[in-house]
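User: Hi! I'm working on a homework problem where we have to compare a predicted structure to a textbook description. Could you give me the structure for the chain below?
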Amino acid sequence: MKYVVNGGADDEHEFSYDVNSSNGPNHWGEIHPEWSMCNQGDMQSPIDLTHKRVRTTSVLGRLDRDYKSANTTLINRGHDMMLRWIRGAGHIHINGTKYRLNQAHWHTPTEHTINGRRYI
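Assistant: Happy to help. Predicted structure tokens:
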């Protein structure tokens, strides 16, 4: 695994997940012209995942996955950590659609909340 301390990261202070901040989610569409779509819709990030909205289902069946070992790069982008696999690390099928595993990232604190709680 190759480690990159900062691979041309976006300025980690240009946006915030704090809804009371001047650069928080309610203002993301004003930060850059290409982010203007963030002012549209009502199911934008961050999303509060509540127990009352969760539905369990058994109709999806068994997950069809085919993951493989692959070289990856770990990148600290300031606002998140990202793993990027060189030439992918396999795939998963969900409802007939194939999704390739090319990258994964996570935020701290978390981007989304669960029942109003943000995790660090």
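For your comparison, note the following. Residues 1-10 have pLDDT under 50 and may be disordered. The longest strand covers residues 80-85. Good luck with the assignment!
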